[in-house]
TrEMBL record:
Species lineage: Bacteria, Bacillati, Bacillota, Bacilli, Bacillales
Record domain PEP-utilising enzyme C-terminal: where: 253-541
Catalytic activity, EC: 2.7.3.9
Name this protein carries in UniProt: Phosphoenolpyruvate-protein phosphotransferase
UniProt keyword terms in alphabetical order: Cytoplasm, Kinase, Magnesium, Metal-binding, Phosphotransferase system, Pyruvate, Sugar transport, Transferase, Transport
Limits of the PEP-utilising enzyme mobile domain: 154-226
Ligand binding (phosphoenolpyruvate): R297, R333, N455, D456, R466
Origin superkingdom: Bacteria
Domain Phosphotransferase system enzyme I N-terminal: 7-127
UniProt gene name: ptsP
Cellular component, GO, one term: cytoplasm
Gene3D superfamilies reported for this sequence: Phosphoenolpyruvate-binding domains, Phosphohistidine domain, PtsI, HPr-binding domain
Active site: H190 (tele-phosphohistidine intermediate), C503 (proton donor)
Length: 574
């Protein structure tokens, strides 16, 4: 008998295969009194060393399967294993309480996990899974147990689990793992992000029923509707197989757009660029038809290490990206830390509301030596490609002018030293704060372009933390207020002969794209995997018609009104 379960659609697509139950390893830990605490600490340190070596191997393999940006999650795990406070607290417990390493480890990690899981911030809650992953690895070594290795799977399966740790997802081979369903997790969780990057269907947050699935049961994952079908009927299998064929036919047509410009059906051209976090993504960006890099997040250069990256390290990274993009424009954003991006070795102060605190350009301007090092590396690299520099979270004109002054100071120092730089680099700024959008007419006189960061602009405009589930209903991308702000920015840019781009989830959103086209957005920067689908979509739209739709949206009252209006208006278009 077929059974239907529901969850959150985390990665689109359809998968039909046998279930592979990934049960959590049973690691029984008992409290034991020991006589020689020094020897026990040595044993613990040996397991730390072994786990570090193992994680480095897993990271290297993960980089091959899922790319450097996703494999970088293991840098965070390595930092945990190198955190002196974490290690010393466990060793202190072993020594003072004369207890075994396994029990000291479990008690310490469980305490931290409980603190994380009770936090209102979704991102912090999800960090508990990293701690769990590290704990499980260490306990397995201490107890001599074996952990499941998903890389050994050699037949088509759908993974069924309570949750997938980063170590699990890093070992998924899309050749055989056709999809997965988990009881825990959210669409923003690490496992969901990996699924989207691998283009495998995934359902998370299946609250009831997954435990009833047996190893080997036939399962269908519907990543469009958020459904899991257990032991489906033959008719249901045939229906989904037909949907798979139709889906493959659509995606195969996207290949036609790889080398084509992004043009609406009435001849208006826009640019589709990629968001990247690593210099190693250049080849995949070009493979997916990107017309440039719309956002390189430099903070990932600073994460996963114990010290600041040197000027030379930064220079080589920026140079590699520019050379790899073969003359296409590359927008590199200066360091954007704080908020949901913590870099331990920067020792950022604790803040009750970090999204409104010491972050992005605010941090850089307070650390001018560090900021100038990054600017110097960028300017040195500028001769190797088409570089554009962008400042994050600018709120006041003074911030922008100070950042530009430091950039010009560094440029002059390099020229005086005989170092060649590109003297015609476009300088832009992120528009993420409502105050900036309202004053866009003033800022437009000082920059060459705007890039609207919609993720932050939405949460600041709606006064709703996008990572807090309790106020998630207020995080409304389609709220007319958001589009009114975007129009202000677009109009201000065009009045000064400047261009405006947009990065964030809205850049690839099928409801938002028609409105953004109508409002005059000229560059859409997104995950590279979305580019061909979006290009195909834009080819079906008329900017003349989208302007009319956008004008109507600006006079609407609710996000629901906007969504229903656009869906209805586009029914006959796409």
């Amino acid at each position: 008998m077929s059974t239907l379960l529901s969850g959150v659609a985390a990665s689109a697509g359809i998968a039909i295969a046998k279930a592979y139950r990934l049960d959590e390893p049973i690691l029984f830990v008992e409290r034991r009194t020991i006589e020689n605490s020094d020897a026990e600490i040595v044993r613990f340190q040996e397991m730390i060393h072994k786990s570090r070596a193992e994680l480095k191997m897993i990271r290297a393999k993960a980089e091959q399967h899922i790319g450097d940006n996703h494999a970088a999650i293991f840098d965070a795990h390595l930092l945990i294993l190198e955190d002196p406070e974490f290690l010393l607290s466990i060793q202190h417990k072993i020594q003072t309480e004369q207890i075994n390493a396994e029990f000291a480890l479990q008690e310490t990690v469980d305490m931290f996990m409980m603190m994380f899981e009770q936090n209102d911030n979704l991102l912090i809650r999800e960090r508990a899974i990293d701690l769990y992953d590290v704990k499980t690895r260490l306990l397995a070594h201490l107890l001599g147990a074996h952990l499941p290795n998903l890389s050994l799977i050699a037949e088509d399966v759908i993974i069924i689990a309570n949750d997938l740790t980063p170590s699990d997802t890093a070992r998924l081979n899309p050749l055989y793992v056709k999809g997965f369903a988990t009881e825990r997790g959210a669409s923003s969780s690490h496992s969901a992000i990996i699924a989207r990057s691998l283009n495998i269907p995934a359902i998370v947050g299946v609250k009831e029923g997954l435990a009833s699935i047996n190893h080997g049961d036939m399962v269908i994952i519907d990543g469009f509707r958020g459904q899991v079908h257990i032991n489906p009927t033959s008719d249901l299998v045939k229906r989904y197989e037909s949907e798979q064929i139709a889906e493959q036919a659509i995606t195969s047509k996207w290949d036609h757009f790889v080398h084509q410009p992004t043009v609406t059906k009435d001849g208006h051209q826009v640019t589709l660029a990629a968001n990247i976090v690593s210099e190693k993504e250049g080849s995949s960006v070009l493979f997916n038809g990107a017309e440039g890099v719309g956002l390189f997040r430099t903070e990932f250069l600073f994460m996963g290490r114990n010290e600041l990256p040197s000027e030379e390290k930064q220079f080589q990274t920026y140079k590699s990206i520019l050379v790899g993009m073969q003359g296409k424009p590359v927008v590199i954003r200066t360091l954007d830390v704080g908020g949901d991006k913590d870099v331990p070795h920067l020792h950022l102060p604790y803040e009750s509301n970090p999204f409104l605190g010491y972050r992005a350009i605010r941090y850089s301007l307070k650390e001018p030596v560090q900021f100038e090092t990054q600017l110097r590396a960028l300017l040195r690299a500028s001769v190797f490609g088409h570089l554009k520099i962008m400042f994050p979270m600018v709120t006041t004109l003074t911030e922008l002018r100070t950042a530009k002054m430091l950039l010009n100071k560094v440029k002059q120092e390099l020229l005086n030293a005989g170092t060649q730089v590109n003297e015609n680099i476009e300088i832009g700024m992120m528009v993420e704060v409502p105050a900036t959008a309202i004053m866009a007419d003033v800022f437009a006189k000082e920059v060459d372009f705007f890039s609207i960061g919609t993720n932050d602009l939405i949460q600041y405009t709606m006064a709703a933390d996008r990572l807090n589930e309790r106020v998630a209903y207020l995080y409304q991308p389609y709220n007319p207020a958001i589009f009114r702000l975007i129009k202000m920015v677009s109009d201000a840019a065009h009045n000064q002969g400047k261009w405006v781009g947009l990065c964030g989830e809205m850049a690839a959103d099928s409801i938002a794209i028609p409105i953004l086209l109508g409002l005059g957005v000229e560059e859409f920067s997104m995950n590279a995997a979305s580019i061909l689908q979006v290009r195909s979509y834009i080819h079906q739209l008329s900017q003349t018609e989208m302007r009319k739709l956008a004008e109507a949206v600006l006079h609407m009252e609710t996000a629901e009104d906007v969504q229903q209006f656009i869906q209805q208006a586009l029914n006959d278009v796409c």
